[in-house]
Amino acid sequence: MKVDTSNLKHLAIIMDGNGRWAKSKGKPRFYGHYKGVLNIIKILREVYKLNIFCVSMFCFSTENWNRPKDEIDHLFKYIETFFKKNIDEFIKKEIKINISGDISKLPIDIQKIINESLNKTKNFNKMVFNICLNYGGRDDIVNACKNITNDVINNKINLNDINEISFKNYLYTKDLPDVDLLIRTSGEERISNFLLYQLAYAELIFVEKYWPEFNIKDLHECINIYNKRKRRFGGL
Ligand code: IPE
Ligand code: IPE
Ligand code: MG
Question: For the range 199-206, what are the long-range contacts, defined as Cβ-Cβ under 8 Å and sequence gap of 24 or more?
Fold first, then answer.
């Protein structure tokens, strides 16, 4: 199947349903996270093949701290392993890693491997993998407001220079295009505090499958649906 991605620069994914998937298999929730994290690289490889410039994946939200510590610890371990296992592939493929979210709250080992990945891929521009970790859309906007205010106070920018475009430079997704397509798995139809500013005109697709079973064919189907949508951006 030929998949046209010429109008798709930024794909965002809310990878939801790991826990329910595990439960449906009679397994503990963390097994779902294990399989879910393994699925990230499969989908990322396909996104790369399809020549999509940027993919954002929601790995851990600012609200996910409300979960049991044991579950959070397992998830972070899998994410740490994910970076360790795949960093060489990111470098080989010239995939730039971008992190959205405050990683200073994460375990130190994971911070180290993330910082190494950021450093080693910072000069690439073929594709961006935006990993959203301890990310919240509201936190992103509030943080941007603080930083922009600071720049005004220090005379780095004028109040009159703040506009919808310049504001973007203060978000975690600085330099990335607006989201074109958002896919959420697991049947839930909500944004859950993901990229609020960046999603303003994104097309939304909700799929029933749980994230660990979302595959390349499902991705192709979503993109084909996206290509049939008429995006008007408020015009006619
Ligand atoms: C998504 O799966 C992964 C994270 C939120 C970290 P969930 O863990 O939310 O799985 P469900 O939605 O409870 O099934
Ligand atoms: C959104 O899923 C966050 C991630 C996928 C990382 P949640 O499972 O946390 O969202 P809610 O609680 O169902 O809205
Ligand atoms: Mg969930």
Answer: 199/12, 199/137, 201/231, 201/233, 202/12, 202/178, 203/229, 203/231, 205/181
